[in-house]
Amino acid sequence: MRLYFTLFSCCFHFGLLQAQDDITTDELKGHITYLTADKNSGRYPGGKINKRVVNYIKKDFKKSGISSFLKSYKQPFTAPLRVKKGDKPKEAVKTWNVIGYIEGNDPILKNEFVVLGAHYDHLGMGGGPSSKSDKIDIHHGADDNASGTSALLEIGEKLMAHRTELKRSVLLVAFGAEEQGLLGSKYFADNPGVPLSQIKLMINMDMVGRLNDAKQVYMGGAGTFPGGVELMKDLGPPLGLSPVVHAGSVGGSDHVSFYKKNISVLGIHTGGHPQYHTPEDTVDLINFEGQKRVCQYIFNAIMKVGSTPYDMKFIPQGD
Ligand SMILES: [Zn+2]
After folding, report:
1. Which domain holds residue 231?
2. Is residue 314 part of a domain?
3. Who surrounds ion ligand 1 at CB < 5 A?
4. What spacing in Å lies between the alpha carbon of 11 and ligand 1's midpoint?
5. How far is the CA of 76 from the centre of ligand 1 (A)?
6. pLDDT tens, 51-84?
7. What CATH number is attached to the domain comprising 217?
8. For the chain, what is the domain count?
9. Distance 188 CA to ligand 1 centre (A)
10. Which H or E run contains 159?
11. The model's pTM
């Protein structure tokens, strides 16, 4: 009986490990459904709702066995909120980045970091300067950027399952207040808790949930590290993806805050759409099968740089 039980529990644990290793459409959907729920009111910075979303991310890091890096998983900062020209100013709010840490195994290379990031905030009820619609309604932000946030959690979980293969360390950062002007990433890049020279690559995911029929995953910044363009092109076909890789074109989201500090970056997305910055950016329009592939693609890129002595150095780009 005892032997039987032991065998059973071994199989059970093996099963769990297998489950942790895989990025599944169900898990991605679960995260995006939670993040875009009406009760989270469009994930506007500040207050109780922001706190709840931040705790959700923190809890998921913990569940995956991902450690904190600074004193806490949460990195607080103050965010001035944008208003339309002529509207009366809003009071600045306290908000947070959420940071997880996976330590590398090489005695020297573990002091070098790959940062994987995605902003979790969105536009709240809209009405601000970035809203593309006049409707005051919950801006769910399923693609922008519950998709990147869910990818961060799932890639983090998979990296954790492969942590013994990592030579370099990985920081997972869910940024706050991106929609207010890249504020979370700016704050992190000014207060990284590690010398900036030790951050070798920053990969940002902003809107990765709407892979098109041509399977095009777009990115800028691939020329900012040696062999980046070739690497990111080569990783596509085995996954059935057609990467559209730009050496420069560093713009638009949180990776800019790192590029400005002379750090190699990749800004990855699956393209724009009519629902961008409107209340109609909802979970039913997410291509989960496609998103899963994009996650696998990014995971493979991190393993390429993180689990080998890949030669990293910053190469500035003209545009
Ligand atoms: Zn946005």
Report:
1. 24-306
2. no
3. 144
4. 44
5. 21
6. 999 999 999 999 999 999 999 999 999 999 999 9
7. 3.40.630.10
8. 1
9. 19
10. helix 148-161
11. 0.93
